[in-house]
Amino acid sequence: MTLLALITASIALTLVGLIYVQAINARPLYTYEIELTLNVVIEVINSSEFKKALVNTVIVAILQTFVGVLIGLILAISIHRTDTPFIARLEPLILIPMFIAPIIWGFAWNYSYGPSGFIPLFREFNPLIAGIICGLIHVPHAYALIASGLLSMDYTLEEVARIHGAGPLRTIARVTIPMLRPSIVLAATLLLILGFEQFGVPLVLLSPWGYDVLTTYLYSIPSTYLMNPYPRMAVVAGTLITITISFVILQRYLILKETKRFVTIGERYRGYFKMRMPTLIKAMFTAITLLYVVGVVIIPLASLILRSVQPLYGAGIREFTVNYYLTIIESESYRITLINTFVVALLAATLGSLIYFSYAWTIVKSSSRRAVSVYVDLLSSMPRALPGLVAGLAFLWFYLLTPLRSLMYTHLGLALAYVIVWSALGVRLVTGSLLQISQELENVARIHGASLTRTIIYIYIPLLKKSILISWLYLFILGIREYSIPVYIATRNTQVIGSNIVLLIGSGELGVIAALSTITVVASLILTVIIFKLGWKPY
Amino acid sequence: MGSYILQVENLSKSFGKVKAVINATFNVNRGGIFSIVGPSGSGKTTLLRCIGGIETPDEGVIVFNDRVIFDSKRGINVPPEARGMSYVPQTWALWPHMKVRDNIAFGLKMRGFPREEIDVRIREISKALKIEELLDRYPWQLSGGQQQRVAVARALALKPQLILFDEPLSNLDAALREEARVWLKNILKELNITALYVTHDIHEALFLSDRIAFMYDGRIRVIETPENIYMKRDIPELARLFGYNIIKARVIDHERGLVTVNEEEYIICDNPHKVKGDALIIFAPSEVKVGYSGIKAKVLRRSFMGGYFEYSLRLGDNIIRVISEAYLKEGSDVFISINRCAIASIT
Questions:
Q1: Domain at B236-344: CATH architecture
Q2: Terminal alpha carbon distance of chain A
Q3: What's the CA gap between B315 and A189, in Å, rounded?
Q4: What residue spans in chain B does CATH classification 2.40.50.140 cover?
Q5: Residue A462 is nearest to which of B81, B97, B111, comparing CB atoms?
Q6: Exposed (0-12), middle (13-18) or buried (19+): which is A93, by Cβ within 10 Å?
Q7: CB-based contact B95 A451, cutoff 8 Å
Q8: pLDDT, tens digit, 9 for 90 and up, residues B110-140
Q9: pTM summary value
Q10: With an 8 Å Cβ cutoff, are A447 and B95 in contact?
Q11: B81: which chain A residues are within 8 Å (Cβ-Cβ)?
């Protein structure tokens, strides 16, 4: 198990190394020729396109962080700490954006609020608007982390504040929010990282208006530099990774520092403490929640679905057609794409469950050596810094250069890439449930005569049954949702819906894009309902 | 068959820079209850876990039932499941997905007992521990006291050569704990099972044990019978567990055990000691007699404890705790004498 964890964790390290090496090598890596030079690096960094893309990326990332954390904080506090009625039931709807790919949100927002959308709120898109939209669709990420902080916080701290004379709003401002600092810092750095690697929304909303961020710039390089785009791509990819790795390190450092000061992460105080709020405040919280659910989730998704059954773009909502769906069903290549999506998601979920379990075991269990466990822990969190697009590119080179080349053309090869790139998230998923099982349950079993294998079979698996199923489904949803990793490594035979949509952009097949998106949205929503029914919570 | 069921030699275990257990050496007789007592962080639980095979010691030898189960030099490390012990942890750790019956049967199944034998054992042990009506319940349906009985039953059902107990009573309230001590001692004696019992509660250890090892800062400081441990006054760390007074004094005449706390009056201690000059003296709160002669002290505070009083007295530069039935006024000067007092060197 440790060996499996070590091998897969080391692949992540290799991927990062490949990108840096290609950035300073003038020849493509797969030629096995080396011509070290910094010229390309200097050239790219000095180019105005790169500088503009970098500035736009920073704008998008900062706005995404600000908007996402602010709204996530308001929603988490109003749902988990106030007596505002009804809004807690909307929680599943608030979380939906997590399960749908940003690229699909890009289309959904374009069809709803874009210049020729159903409610043309924006006459054009620019980095400021895109940043806000990214923030809105990343609210659930912030919400989940902050809610988790709230639920693990000792609520007697707030009770004492109330009894000592602080009103509800002042208690929130003076006690709750300061105590939540570790969770807020965690959420902010996560959203910042996700903001830098944002690809889908800028590709759909910004590229047509002539704006690039680093990811879309990276994606556009091969069409400008036909001969040998790889060193240039590697420089842009390397820049992105350098930024995101720095943030991952910063995040680790900050969490360490913050949790030493505020012990809000740890034992859960599942007791509920809800503050009685003045009616006006309750009305305000209800309004914000409803506005979010309706404006950010329901209207864009409804527009997307509507668009998939409409014959002409912008022709109103009188006419309907199922032609786009028929096109998809009748075309063999789309059919294969649909099947591939499910096969790869299935493989990735299964392989992922296995590998993350071995990661989590190596990290959590005391039996493994400390150095090994720290190494695996660090490397499993590194892919967090690998934007999907960049990871896909690195995987392309990895497959070309290693004996695993034959995997590149298979579903398994694609699934393996997913699993490595998701490892930060997946490991956290499994580690959480593994940590919930007291070590003593294993110890007693061992001393009473069960070997490790039998302890896993008789103690761990029965106890983890449900959370194994939930993690598997969660990974399966991620698999269906994935669009950026396969952009570079999916071949004709392994094309999936997500990367197919990326390819279709610019083809004008907007109806087909809407129909393909709707199919993944519906599939994701069904699976989301199932994991909610199974008792999944993001915190 | 040797008379020792367990022999531990020079066992050491560190976690990073922290030395949890240092050179632990001791033997456990067959059929007795051997306790390891110490304050939290003294390394007693780590030592127990090393013996159970959950932790791997850095150095040392463990011989169990005449078989070497761990030897760092020879690279022997028998896995926990092959050591033939059983275990009752502090949290009891009943497997939540198994009924009481299956919890008890688990170890027997793992060791390959036939179905009929398992049924017989479950019947016997549940009768002995009065848990027959609980067999078809799940752990969460049991009270704390019931869970504790089931955890003990699970360990006893294996009829092991040695049961490891890690503070098994500390999660019970005071009344239940008293009761549990009694039945636990009785059942262990009745079944003639050897127990290695870790606790921070010295009184629990005195009641239960045949022999007690006192552990502090990773080292076993003394191994004695309960009676002798109680009389052992010259280890300040042990005295602290008993709640004794430990104060600074100066040895005037070490051959006669003469000390002073205020340079005016003298106390005679009953263990003439090698120490000269500055030392510690140790005595129990109940062994201070208040009267009209002796050393002068001032009454700082009086607390009524029901049937007796507990006082804080100022003695020289020290504040001591005294238990007495006599009523003394706060702020008054009194004279005290100390019945039994020991000298210890300042470490």
A1: Beta Barrel (2.40)
A2: 27
A3: 59
A4: 236-344
A5: B97
A6: middle
A7: no
A8: 999 999 999 999 999 999 999 999 999 999 8
A9: 0.80
A10: no
A11: 446-451
